[in-house]
Amino acid sequence: MLRLDRICAALAALLAMACVTATVHAAEPFSPAALAAARDVRERALRDDTGYDLLRSLTTEVGPRLCGTPGDARAVAWAIANLNALGFTNVHAEPVKVPHWVRGTPHVEVLAPFAQPMVAVTLGGSVATPDDGIAAGVVGVTTIAELALLPDSAVRGKVVYFGNRMQRSKSVASYGAAVGVRGRGAGEASKRGAVAVMIRSIGTDRDRVGHTGGMRFEKTETPIPAFALSNPDADMLERQLASGQPVRVRLRDDSHWADSTMSANVVGEIPGRDPRGEVVVLGAHLDSWDLGQGAHDDGAGVAIMTAAARLVGQGTMRPKRTIRVVLFANEEFGLSGARAYAREHAAEAPKIVAGMESDLGAFAPTGFQSRVDPSLAPVVQAMAQVLAPLGVPLTGNEASGDADVGRLYDLGIPVFDVDTDASGYFDLHHTPNDTFDKIDPAMVRLNTACYAALAFLAAEYGPGLGRAPRAPAAPR
Ligand SMILES: [Zn+2]
After folding, report:
1. pTM for the predicted model, two decimal places
2. Are residues 234 and 273 in the same domain?
3. Which residue in 331, 332, 357, 460 is the catalytic one?
4. Most buried residue, 203, 231, 308, 461, by CB count within 10 Å?
5. For residue 286, how far is its CA from the centre of ligand 1 (angstroms)?
6. For this structure, is 269 an active site residue?
7. Region 116-122: what's the mean pLDDT?
């Protein structure tokens, strides 16, 4: 009897414990098996060089791939071949119309007061000068706001120089603060009667290279030539302006527009186990500027996201939903691929449970953010625990998906961002120096581990992640 009582009591205690355990597990967002599979893909990513090998291949066999160029077409073929070779399914190209701008050869020199040549690059979208160039006086300002304070008489017939200096920072915000003059400085100067524009390069290096990038004119504005001076040449020009003597420059360039042409978003999938067809999108942009090899921008993103999806597919547990890699066409010169994708997949948006994008180079991750309904905080916290051993903390719920996947966020799709230390990125960004030798394979592995674990868990989470809350409207 005694023994039976003891056995009964022991059984009852075990049963009670089991109930408690079961209750706790019912409230957990992920099963122990799912968490184990997420940790497993994280650890495999840290030992896997698929991403680094892909990036070597892309930078070696394709190189620069500005939209509309032969390099762009080669990149599309490269992506299709590599996704197929890595075992992706449903590999295909979705055609996208892209602009085609042809870079000329810039010639930029100071004529007076102290004549000397300058190193500059032409900004994307610039138009040619007359064959014998433009010789004109320079008016120097820092920002577009400062230009607005000048009388028209001070701008008409002049070359406007914008000297705003980008600050080095771990955060990409310093780029956002500086880049406005590149995109719109020439348009604003043209409206005021300027004949050309020079800007200080949007970059943090002291190398004698210019940083290119896109700019745009409104339909009502007359396009004018625009150049980015290397930082050392911008310094020299500012010293000449500081002399108080009139500064004259000569600018010559033969850049021009060709007919728009076709590129493509390239897509490949790692199928999930649920036949309902829900997907998690991992995005990066396949195009690059034409001066370097597009290694950090954004070959790294292409490599990281492709490797992350493949590693999920190689795991012992296939996630519930499909992981879809989308390599976007023409991010650099107007987001053609992202806009086309959001437009053509809008009806599918309810089935896209999350989007993520890698487009800040293969540098050390500093944290990750979500943008999900606040009621899903426990889900994101569980994801954060899987990323914690990588030294990548959860930093907030204000992700926006970056340039391409941001267009999916616009459709209400939850997004996750892995932020990286940007303090070295803008030494290389959009320059001839964005090349494969600048890539640290350990950083490719670490970023891949972050995205692989996040992608697996987002694809696995049972009920789905709902719709993303909108950012509060900016104060007017
Ligand atoms: Zn980029």
Report:
1. 0.92
2. no
3. 331
4. 308
5. 9
6. no
7. 98
